[in-house]
Amino acid sequence: MSTSNTIRISISYDQQIVAEGIAAVLLKDKRFEICGLKPNKRDQLTNGSLTIDFWILEFCNMSACQIEHIRQIRKANPGLKILVVTSPLLRSAMVTLMQLINGLVIRSCSSDKLLTAIYEIEETGKYLSPKAVRALFEENGDGNLVKSELTSREKEILSAWLTCRDNAEISDRLNISGTTVRTHLKNIREKFGCANQIQMMTYACKENLLSENFKPICPNCRCYCYSTPN
């Protein structure tokens, strides 16, 4: 990885003209160095011997095979920052993908949004574009991620669970026993059904349960409960 302030970026693409447009946008910032533009191939970047900081993947549409390829990339290169540029996804695919990558933007996004994504990933490690956030919250109509509403105490427990290191820290913060913490977490998981931590994070963001200095996915999630992003 780069040891200077320069951010070394490689771009893989389905459509070369889109990749060239992305490169042109990035070159406006002198901190970015474009190390290559290559068509998407399944044998790319799987040897773990990379000399780049960022990998941007442009896909016309995501498939299960592409997600599995990204999974292998992540396994071989755990420190690599990955930003995906693609068409809108179903929430189920997005939730799976966000566990493997650092950021996702929709192909119709502006150049400013693309730059914001990279800056945010550099600062906080994660970015999800406003349109993708909307899909996470609204795909099922009313956007509810839980089978039944959480109680105020369960919301408090959920917030602590997402921000504390372990159950012991939750106990100390809320002055309750470890058994009580485990019981609340069990009830919360039952209300979420098969939801994973990413979905629980998005719910916490939408309900504004988290402290202002904690960003589980990106600032767009927190803003969503106040206004609908464009």
Automatic annotation (TrEMBL):
Q: Which CDD domains match?
A: LuxR_C_like
Keywords of the record: DNA-binding, Transcription, Transcription regulation
Residue intervals of the HTH luxR-type domain = 142-208
One GO biological process term: regulation of DNA-templated transcription
Keyword DNA repair in annotation? no
MF (Gene Ontology): DNA binding
**Descriptive protein name:** DNA-binding NarL/FixJ family response regulator
* Species assigned in the record: Mangrovibacterium diazotrophicum
Q: What is the lineage of its organism?
A: Bacteria, Pseudomonadati, Bacteroidota, Bacteroidia, Marinilabiliales
